[in-house]
Specification:
The protein has 335 residues and is α/β, with parallel strands linked by helices. The chain contains 10 helices and 17 strands. Strands 3, 4, 5, 8, 9, 16 and 17 form a 7-stranded mixed sheet that branches. A 6-stranded parallel sheet has the order 12-11-10-13-14-15, with helices on both faces. The protein has a two-stranded antiparallel ribbon with strand order 1-2. The longest helix has 12 residues. The chain is globular, with a radius of gyration of 19 Å.
Protein backbone atom coordinates (compact mmCIF):
# COMPACT_ATOMS: atom_id res chain seq x y z
CA UNK A 1 0.00 0.00 0.00
CA UNK A 2 0.96 3.67 -0.30
CA UNK A 3 1.70 5.40 2.98
CA UNK A 4 3.25 8.62 4.28
CA UNK A 5 6.12 7.66 6.58
CA UNK A 6 7.96 9.65 9.23
CA UNK A 7 11.39 8.11 9.84
CA UNK A 8 13.00 10.98 11.76
CA UNK A 9 11.24 14.05 13.17
CA UNK A 10 12.24 17.43 11.78
CA UNK A 11 10.86 20.78 10.59
CA UNK A 12 8.14 20.26 8.02
CA UNK A 13 9.97 22.65 5.67
CA UNK A 14 12.77 20.05 5.45
CA UNK A 15 10.36 17.39 4.19
CA UNK A 16 10.69 14.71 6.90
CA UNK A 17 7.74 12.80 5.37
CA UNK A 18 8.03 10.40 2.46
CA UNK A 19 5.41 8.64 0.35
CA UNK A 20 6.48 4.99 0.22
CA UNK A 21 5.26 1.51 -0.66
CA UNK A 22 4.87 -0.57 2.50
CA UNK A 23 3.23 -3.94 3.21
CA UNK A 24 -0.50 -3.83 3.83
CA UNK A 25 -0.98 -4.75 7.51
CA UNK A 26 -2.70 -7.92 8.72
CA UNK A 27 -5.40 -8.10 11.36
CA UNK A 28 -4.94 -9.75 14.73
CA UNK A 29 -7.49 -10.71 17.36
CA UNK A 30 -10.10 -8.03 17.95
CA UNK A 31 -9.05 -6.02 14.92
CA UNK A 32 -10.36 -4.69 11.61
CA UNK A 33 -8.56 -3.81 8.39
CA UNK A 34 -9.93 -0.60 6.91
CA UNK A 35 -9.49 0.79 3.43
CA UNK A 36 -9.09 4.47 4.27
CA UNK A 37 -11.30 6.95 2.43
CA UNK A 38 -10.48 10.11 4.42
CA UNK A 39 -8.04 11.27 7.12
CA UNK A 40 -8.03 14.70 8.73
CA UNK A 41 -4.82 16.65 9.31
CA UNK A 42 -4.35 17.75 12.92
CA UNK A 43 -1.93 20.25 14.42
CA UNK A 44 -0.84 17.51 16.81
CA UNK A 45 0.37 15.60 13.74
CA UNK A 46 2.58 18.59 13.02
CA UNK A 47 3.90 18.65 16.60
CA UNK A 48 4.86 14.98 16.39
CA UNK A 49 6.41 15.25 12.93
CA UNK A 50 8.53 18.25 13.91
CA UNK A 51 9.83 16.53 17.06
CA UNK A 52 8.06 18.69 19.65
CA UNK A 53 7.03 15.63 21.65
CA UNK A 54 10.17 13.50 21.45
CA UNK A 55 10.88 14.12 25.14
CA UNK A 56 7.53 12.48 25.90
CA UNK A 57 8.34 9.41 23.83
CA UNK A 58 6.22 10.40 20.83
CA UNK A 59 6.50 9.04 18.23
CA UNK A 60 7.01 5.79 20.07
CA UNK A 61 8.33 3.93 17.01
CA UNK A 62 10.14 4.59 13.78
CA UNK A 63 9.09 4.66 11.04
CA UNK A 64 5.51 5.62 11.81
CA UNK A 65 2.48 6.62 9.76
CA UNK A 66 0.83 9.77 11.24
CA UNK A 67 -2.87 10.59 11.29
CA UNK A 68 -5.78 9.91 13.64
CA UNK A 69 -9.02 11.31 12.14
CA UNK A 70 -9.88 8.32 10.02
CA UNK A 71 -12.84 7.09 8.01
CA UNK A 72 -12.78 3.91 5.96
CA UNK A 73 -14.56 0.74 4.92
CA UNK A 74 -13.98 -2.61 6.56
CA UNK A 75 -12.24 -5.03 4.17
CA UNK A 76 -11.16 -7.69 6.67
CA UNK A 77 -12.50 -8.76 10.07
CA UNK A 78 -10.75 -10.87 12.70
CA UNK A 79 -12.53 -14.12 13.48
CA UNK A 80 -13.38 -13.03 17.02
CA UNK A 81 -15.04 -9.75 15.98
CA UNK A 82 -18.84 -9.82 15.70
CA UNK A 83 -19.77 -6.12 15.85
CA UNK A 84 -18.58 -5.35 12.31
CA UNK A 85 -18.56 -7.00 8.92
CA UNK A 86 -16.92 -6.40 5.57
CA UNK A 87 -18.29 -3.33 3.84
CA UNK A 88 -19.19 -1.43 7.01
CA UNK A 89 -18.24 2.25 7.03
CA UNK A 90 -16.47 3.15 10.27
CA UNK A 91 -14.40 5.85 11.91
CA UNK A 92 -11.34 5.75 14.16
CA UNK A 93 -10.20 8.55 16.45
CA UNK A 94 -6.97 9.30 18.30
CA UNK A 95 -7.70 6.77 21.05
CA UNK A 96 -6.61 3.45 19.51
CA UNK A 97 -6.93 1.45 22.74
CA UNK A 98 -6.84 1.60 26.53
CA UNK A 99 -6.19 -1.00 29.21
CA UNK A 100 -9.84 -1.59 30.09
CA UNK A 101 -8.94 -2.36 33.72
CA UNK A 102 -7.88 0.84 35.47
CA UNK A 103 -10.15 3.18 37.44
CA UNK A 104 -10.46 5.49 34.46
CA UNK A 105 -11.47 2.80 31.99
CA UNK A 106 -13.92 1.27 34.46
CA UNK A 107 -15.65 4.63 34.94
CA UNK A 108 -15.97 5.53 31.26
CA UNK A 109 -12.94 7.81 31.15
CA UNK A 110 -10.70 5.67 28.97
CA UNK A 111 -9.38 8.81 27.25
CA UNK A 112 -7.22 9.49 30.34
CA UNK A 113 -6.09 5.88 30.84
CA UNK A 114 -2.37 5.99 31.57
CA UNK A 115 -1.82 2.94 29.36
CA UNK A 116 -3.73 4.28 26.36
CA UNK A 117 -2.29 3.93 22.87
CA UNK A 118 -2.79 6.77 20.43
CA UNK A 119 -3.46 6.32 16.73
CA UNK A 120 -0.62 7.67 14.61
CA UNK A 121 1.64 8.17 17.65
CA UNK A 122 2.03 4.72 19.19
CA UNK A 123 0.59 2.69 16.30
CA UNK A 124 0.45 3.45 12.57
CA UNK A 125 -2.20 5.99 11.62
CA UNK A 126 -4.27 7.18 8.71
CA UNK A 127 -1.91 8.87 6.23
CA UNK A 128 -2.14 5.69 4.16
CA UNK A 129 -4.40 3.50 2.06
CA UNK A 130 -5.13 0.98 4.83
CA UNK A 131 -5.06 0.85 8.62
CA UNK A 132 -5.57 -1.78 11.31
CA UNK A 133 -8.15 -0.61 13.83
CA UNK A 134 -9.11 -1.96 17.23
CA UNK A 135 -12.75 -3.03 16.82
CA UNK A 136 -13.65 -1.94 20.37
CA UNK A 137 -12.52 1.62 19.51
CA UNK A 138 -14.11 1.90 16.07
CA UNK A 139 -17.43 3.62 15.37
CA UNK A 140 -20.11 2.87 12.83
CA UNK A 141 -20.89 5.97 10.77
CA UNK A 142 -24.37 7.40 10.22
CA UNK A 143 -25.45 6.95 6.61
CA UNK A 144 -26.15 10.66 6.09
CA UNK A 145 -22.55 11.80 6.76
CA UNK A 146 -20.09 11.60 3.89
CA UNK A 147 -16.57 10.34 4.55
CA UNK A 148 -14.73 13.67 4.42
CA UNK A 149 -17.42 15.37 6.49
CA UNK A 150 -17.21 12.68 9.15
CA UNK A 151 -13.41 12.56 9.34
CA UNK A 152 -12.94 15.78 11.40
CA UNK A 153 -15.45 14.51 13.97
CA UNK A 154 -12.83 12.00 15.11
CA UNK A 155 -10.53 14.62 16.63
CA UNK A 156 -11.79 18.20 16.36
CA UNK A 157 -15.33 16.96 16.98
CA UNK A 158 -14.68 14.91 20.10
CA UNK A 159 -12.03 17.34 21.38
CA UNK A 160 -14.36 20.34 21.02
CA UNK A 161 -17.24 18.45 22.62
CA UNK A 162 -15.16 17.40 25.61
CA UNK A 163 -13.87 20.94 26.13
CA UNK A 164 -17.30 22.56 25.91
CA UNK A 165 -18.77 20.10 28.41
CA UNK A 166 -16.04 21.07 30.89
CA UNK A 167 -16.76 24.79 30.40
CA UNK A 168 -20.10 24.44 32.23
CA UNK A 169 -22.10 26.53 29.79
CA UNK A 170 -25.82 27.28 29.87
CA UNK A 171 -28.24 29.70 28.17
CA UNK A 172 -27.23 33.32 28.66
CA UNK A 173 -23.64 32.63 29.65
CA UNK A 174 -20.79 34.15 27.63
CA UNK A 175 -17.82 32.09 26.52
CA UNK A 176 -14.68 33.33 24.76
CA UNK A 177 -13.11 30.91 22.29
CA UNK A 178 -9.43 31.61 21.62
CA UNK A 179 -8.20 30.02 18.38
CA UNK A 180 -10.77 29.40 15.63
CA UNK A 181 -9.26 26.58 13.61
CA UNK A 182 -9.97 22.90 13.18
CA UNK A 183 -11.18 22.48 16.77
CA UNK A 184 -12.27 26.05 17.51
CA UNK A 185 -14.85 26.21 14.72
CA UNK A 186 -16.58 23.20 16.26
CA UNK A 187 -16.27 24.60 19.79
CA UNK A 188 -18.38 27.54 18.61
CA UNK A 189 -21.10 25.22 17.34
CA UNK A 190 -21.22 23.07 20.47
CA UNK A 191 -21.25 26.17 22.71
CA UNK A 192 -24.25 27.51 20.83
CA UNK A 193 -26.07 24.21 21.40
CA UNK A 194 -25.74 24.97 25.12
CA UNK A 195 -27.33 28.38 24.51
CA UNK A 196 -24.18 30.35 25.28
CA UNK A 197 -23.16 33.61 23.57
CA UNK A 198 -19.81 33.08 21.87
CA UNK A 199 -16.98 35.60 21.61
CA UNK A 200 -14.51 34.39 18.96
CA UNK A 201 -10.91 35.57 19.32
CA UNK A 202 -8.35 35.10 16.56
CA UNK A 203 -5.65 36.96 14.66
CA UNK A 204 -6.67 35.26 11.40
CA UNK A 205 -9.32 37.21 9.49
CA UNK A 206 -10.49 34.13 7.56
CA UNK A 207 -11.07 32.30 10.83
CA UNK A 208 -13.01 35.25 12.22
CA UNK A 209 -15.24 35.34 9.14
CA UNK A 210 -15.94 31.64 9.61
CA UNK A 211 -16.74 32.25 13.28
CA UNK A 212 -19.35 34.84 12.26
CA UNK A 213 -20.87 32.43 9.77
CA UNK A 214 -21.14 29.78 12.50
CA UNK A 215 -23.00 32.09 14.86
CA UNK A 216 -20.42 33.79 17.08
CA UNK A 217 -22.13 36.77 18.72
CA UNK A 218 -18.91 38.83 18.73
CA UNK A 219 -15.53 38.58 17.04
CA UNK A 220 -12.26 40.08 18.27
CA UNK A 221 -9.24 40.48 16.01
CA UNK A 222 -6.31 39.89 18.35
CA UNK A 223 -3.82 41.07 15.71
CA UNK A 224 -4.99 44.65 16.17
CA UNK A 225 -4.25 46.85 19.15
CA UNK A 226 -2.75 45.88 22.47
CA UNK A 227 -3.78 42.90 24.55
CA UNK A 228 -5.38 45.30 27.03
CA UNK A 229 -7.52 46.76 24.24
CA UNK A 230 -8.87 43.48 23.01
CA UNK A 231 -9.34 42.17 26.53
CA UNK A 232 -11.60 45.18 27.07
CA UNK A 233 -13.51 44.28 23.90
CA UNK A 234 -14.06 40.74 25.12
CA UNK A 235 -15.23 41.91 28.52
CA UNK A 236 -15.53 39.51 31.45
CA UNK A 237 -16.82 36.12 30.29
CA UNK A 238 -18.19 33.23 32.31
CA UNK A 239 -15.83 30.72 30.68
CA UNK A 240 -13.00 30.68 28.18
CA UNK A 241 -11.80 27.86 25.95
CA UNK A 242 -8.29 27.99 24.51
CA UNK A 243 -7.16 26.25 21.33
CA UNK A 244 -4.49 28.80 20.38
CA UNK A 245 -1.09 27.21 21.16
CA UNK A 246 0.31 30.15 23.13
CA UNK A 247 1.17 30.77 26.77
CA UNK A 248 0.48 34.49 26.26
CA UNK A 249 -2.98 33.82 24.86
CA UNK A 250 -3.76 31.31 27.63
CA UNK A 251 -2.87 33.77 30.36
CA UNK A 252 -4.94 36.49 28.69
CA UNK A 253 -7.87 34.10 28.42
CA UNK A 254 -7.69 33.53 32.18
CA UNK A 255 -7.68 37.29 32.74
CA UNK A 256 -10.74 37.65 30.50
CA UNK A 257 -12.66 35.16 32.64
CA UNK A 258 -14.77 36.34 35.58
CA UNK A 259 -13.75 35.55 39.15
CA UNK A 260 -15.01 32.07 39.89
CA UNK A 261 -15.10 31.28 36.17
CA UNK A 262 -13.40 28.46 34.34
CA UNK A 263 -10.79 28.31 31.57
CA UNK A 264 -10.53 25.09 29.57
CA UNK A 265 -7.16 24.51 27.92
CA UNK A 266 -6.92 22.39 24.80
CA UNK A 267 -3.22 23.28 24.42
CA UNK A 268 -0.05 23.02 26.48
CA UNK A 269 0.78 26.38 28.04
CA UNK A 270 1.82 28.06 31.28
CA UNK A 271 -1.16 29.42 33.17
CA UNK A 272 0.63 31.95 35.36
CA UNK A 273 -0.84 33.15 38.65
CA UNK A 274 -4.47 32.30 39.44
CA UNK A 275 -6.55 34.70 41.57
CA UNK A 276 -10.17 35.18 42.64
CA UNK A 277 -11.06 31.50 42.43
CA UNK A 278 -10.56 31.34 38.69
CA UNK A 279 -10.30 27.70 37.72
CA UNK A 280 -8.25 26.11 34.96
CA UNK A 281 -8.63 22.62 33.59
CA UNK A 282 -7.32 20.88 30.51
CA UNK A 283 -9.25 18.65 28.15
CA UNK A 284 -8.04 15.54 26.34
CA UNK A 285 -10.32 14.19 23.62
CA UNK A 286 -13.37 12.52 25.19
CA UNK A 287 -14.70 9.09 26.04
CA UNK A 288 -16.06 6.52 23.63
CA UNK A 289 -19.59 7.31 24.77
CA UNK A 290 -18.99 11.00 24.07
CA UNK A 291 -17.66 10.10 20.62
CA UNK A 292 -20.96 8.37 19.89
CA UNK A 293 -22.82 11.47 21.11
CA UNK A 294 -20.83 13.62 18.68
CA UNK A 295 -21.77 11.34 15.78
CA UNK A 296 -25.43 11.52 16.81
CA UNK A 297 -25.36 15.34 16.91
CA UNK A 298 -23.65 15.52 13.51
CA UNK A 299 -26.13 13.09 12.00
CA UNK A 300 -28.97 15.26 13.30
CA UNK A 301 -27.45 18.31 11.59
CA UNK A 302 -26.63 20.08 14.87
CA UNK A 303 -22.95 20.56 13.97
CA UNK A 304 -21.18 20.91 10.64
CA UNK A 305 -17.45 20.34 10.17
CA UNK A 306 -15.90 22.72 7.64
CA UNK A 307 -13.21 21.06 5.55
CA UNK A 308 -11.25 21.01 2.31
CA UNK A 309 -9.99 17.87 0.57
CA UNK A 310 -6.43 17.23 -0.61
CA UNK A 311 -4.79 14.18 -2.16
CA UNK A 312 -2.74 12.07 0.25
CA UNK A 313 0.41 12.84 -1.74
CA UNK A 314 0.10 16.49 -0.69
CA UNK A 315 0.44 15.75 3.04
CA UNK A 316 3.67 17.72 3.48
CA UNK A 317 2.27 20.68 1.56
CA UNK A 318 -0.89 20.65 3.68
CA UNK A 319 1.10 20.54 6.92
CA UNK A 320 3.16 23.50 5.70
CA UNK A 321 -0.07 25.38 5.03
CA UNK A 322 -1.36 24.47 8.48
CA UNK A 323 1.83 25.78 10.09
CA UNK A 324 1.45 29.08 8.23
CA UNK A 325 -2.19 29.48 9.25
CA UNK A 326 -3.43 28.98 5.70
CA UNK A 327 -5.88 26.15 6.47
CA UNK A 328 -9.38 27.33 7.35
CA UNK A 329 -11.02 24.81 9.70
CA UNK A 330 -9.86 21.32 8.59
CA UNK A 331 -7.85 19.74 5.79
CA UNK A 332 -8.74 16.16 4.89
CA UNK A 333 -6.41 13.83 3.01
CA UNK A 334 -7.91 11.47 0.45
CA UNK A 335 -5.84 8.35 -0.49
Amino acid sequence: MKAILLREPGPIERNPLNLEDVPTPNVGNGQLLLKITACGVCRSNLHMIEGDWVEFGIPSKSPIIPGHEIVGRVVRVANDVTAFQEGDRVGVDALWSSCGKCEFCLTGRENICESRLMTGEHVDGGYAEYIVANADYAYRLPDNLNDSEASPLFCPGITAYGAVKKAQLSPGKRVAVFGIGGVGHLVIQFARLYGADVVAVSRNIQHLKLAEELGARQIVDSSKGSSAEWLKQIGPVDSSIVFAPSTTVTQLAIKATKPGGITVMGVWAETGELVDERRVTNSILGSRNEMREVLTLASAGKIRPVYKEFNLERASEVLNMLKKGEIVARAVLIP
